[in-house]
Amino acid sequence: MTGKAKPKKHTAKEIAAKVDAATTNRGGGKAGRADRSGSEKGGHAKLECPHCKITAPDLKSMQIHHDAKHPKLPFDDSKLVNLHASHVVESSKPRPGVRGSHKK
């Protein structure tokens, strides 16, 4: 038995915090590097520079990069490569049907 002041169940806030901590990529390690680079899943990097192939998360960051690294070239946002638009998610496993059956 537990004491009077101790809650017997987890709160919804605590469960939501645990789910968020378990499912959100905080950016550490090899998985975080791949996510930041935008190469595998689209990641945080949305745009790619057409001149040097560096990635940036948004248009403002890409414009800052362009002004700093390519000052002699005119900035044209239509030439930027959108990594999120070109990424297609593929499923390797077949999805099970009713109650986990693999009927075809």
Report the principal-axis shape.
elongated
The helix fraction, in percent, is: 25-40%
Distance between the termini: 51 Å
Unreliable stretches, pLDDT < 50, 5 or more residues? none
Order of helices and strands: HHEEHEH
Biased composition (Basic residues): 1-11
Subcellular location: Cytoplasm; Nucleus
Main location: cytoplasm
Protein name: Zinc finger (C2H2 type) family protein
Q: Would you kindly provide a written description of the structure presented here, covering whatever features stand out?
A:
By secondary structure, the chain is mainly alpha-helical. The chain has a domain at 34-87. The protein is built from 4 helices and 3 strands. The chain has helices spanning 12-23, 29-37, 59-69, 83-86, and strands at 47-48, 55-56, 81-82. It has a 3-stranded antiparallel sheet. A hairpin with a 6-residue loop joins strand 1 and strand 2 (55-56). The protein is elongated, with a radius of gyration of 22 Å. The mean pLDDT is 75.
Give the SSE map.
Layout: H1 12-23, H2 29-37, E1 47-48, E2 55-56, H3 59-69, E3 81-82, H4 83-86
Antiparallel strand pairs: 1-2, 1-3
Protein name: Zinc finger (C2H2 type) family protein
Organism: Quercus suber (Cork oak)
Keywords: Cytoplasm, Nucleus
